[in-house]
UniProtKB/TrEMBL annotation:
<dbReference type="InterPro" id="IPR036388">
    <property type="entry name" value="WH-like_DNA-bd_sf"/>
</dbReference>
<dbReference type="Pfam" id="PF03466">
    <property type="entry name" value="LysR_substrate"/>
</dbReference>
<dbReference type="InterPro" id="IPR000847">
    <property type="entry name" value="LysR_HTH_N"/>
</dbReference>
<keyword id="KW-0804">Transcription</keyword>
<protein>
    <submittedName>
        <fullName>LysR family transcriptional regulator</fullName>
    </submittedName>
</protein>
<feature type="domain" description="HTH lysR-type">
    <location>
        <begin position="5"/>
        <end position="62"/>
    </location>
</feature>
<dbReference type="InterPro" id="IPR005119">
    <property type="entry name" value="LysR_subst-bd"/>
</dbReference>
<dbReference type="InterPro" id="IPR036390">
    <property type="entry name" value="WH_DNA-bd_sf"/>
</dbReference>
<dbReference type="Pfam" id="PF00126">
    <property type="entry name" value="HTH_1"/>
</dbReference>
<keyword id="KW-0238">DNA-binding</keyword>
<comment type="similarity">
    <text>Belongs to the LysR transcriptional regulatory family.</text>
</comment>
<keyword id="KW-0805">Transcription regulation</keyword>
<dbReference type="InterPro" id="IPR058163">
    <property type="entry name" value="LysR-type_TF_proteobact-type"/>
</dbReference>
Length: 320
């Protein structure tokens, strides 16, 4: 059996498993339902086992089919990876890569990285869409685009997530604000300060600190400004309006220049969050050029990412 036939049969088998119907699976391929049934029959004969039980009303997977599905997914992943590696070694990659990403992260970090990637790969093109809507970053456009960059908890376990960089959040305020209001020495003192916060769905680890060995939420009682956009909170922090709890990928350069002062960082950067910055994709639509970009971005950002390395070095200098 040649690799293309094997790939087609395994993908067809997984489509029947997912849809529960020969007709629905046929719509994903240039096949008729009867042709799908014949190919599944051929696969079952080759396996020597029944993978589906059929009735006039439904197609149900058998225990043997469920067990085979796990191996089929791994085999397909390895075939795709082997093919991508072979292509990358035998010829220069060509084609378009389409990406959706959050606007603030895209402007600061992704756009410069992609420019470097394109210089190194003259046969490739990139369409980068910077998205402000949180909903658009759930992976709903996958299929229309190759990669969705996502910051925070993963939206859907069916998607393949590649971690690109760790995520750290830091409490900070402008020097002017701290001169006027004083420097909080503990997260418990934050309630006495003015805050800048999310007005709707806050990030899951915002304003959470370990106090007396327990993870607690400590935040300012008065909120001078709320917003659904972290970049807005950054601008207000720079203007001296209050204390913010910002991701380091957004605030690092301002902290290094002294435009914002880090709080509670006597021992260095706070712990990284359990969530990361991810690239989401649909496994079956991963192309060699997409894999090449993912590998580049992982090396470009990494753990710890460059913005955290630079910030950690600056924190070694005693604060005034």
């Amino acid at each position: 059996m040649n690799p293309d036939t094997l790939t087609d049969q395994l993908e067809l088998f997984l489509d029947v498993l997912e849809t529960g119907s020969f007709s629905a699976a046929a719509r994903r391929h240039p096949l008729t339902p009867s042709a799908v049934a014949r190919r599944i029959d051929a696969l079952e004969r080759a396996m020597g086992s029944s993978l589906f039980s059929r009735t006039t009303h439904a197609v149900r997977v058998t225990p043997a089919g469920l067990a085979f599905a796990e191996r089929a997914r791994r085999i397909l992943a390895e075939l795709h990876l082997a093919r991508a590696e072979a292509v990358s070694l035998s010829s220069a990659p060509e084609g378009m890569i389409r990406i959706d990403a959050p606007s603030p992260f895209g402007r600061r970090h992704l756009a410069p990285a992609i420019a470097e990637f394109l210089r190194a790969n003259p046969g490739l093109d990139v369409q980068l869409r910077l998205i402000d809507s949180f909903i658009d970053l759930q992976g709903e456009h996958l299929g229309e685009v190759d990669i969705v960059v996502r910051i925070g908890p993963l939206p859907d376990s069916r998607l393949v997530a590649t971690p690109l960089a760790s995520m750290t959040r830091i409490v900070c305020a402008s020097p002017d604000y701290l001169r006027r209001r004083g420097i909080p020495r503990s997260p418990l003192e934050l309630e006495q300060h003015d805050g800048l916060d999310w007005d709707s769905l806050a990030p899951p680890y915002a304003w959470r600190f370990e106090v007396d060995g327990k993870l607690q939420q400590c935040k300012p009682k008065r909120l001078r400004q709320t917003s659904n956009n972290a970049e807005t909170l950054l601008f207000s922090a720079l203007a001296g309006l209050g204390v913010a709890h910002l991701p380091t990928w957004m605030s690092s350069e301002h902290l290094q220049r002294g435009e914002l002062i880090p709080l509670f960082c006597e021992q260095g950067l706070p712990p990284i969050e359990p969530v990361s910055i991810y690239a989401l994709r649909l496994e079956r639509e991963a192309s060699p050029r997409t894999r090449l970009l993912l590998s580049f971005l992982k090396q470009r950002f990494g753990f710890p990412p460059p913005w955290d390395q630079a910030l950690q070095a600056s924190l070694a200098i005693p604060q005034q």
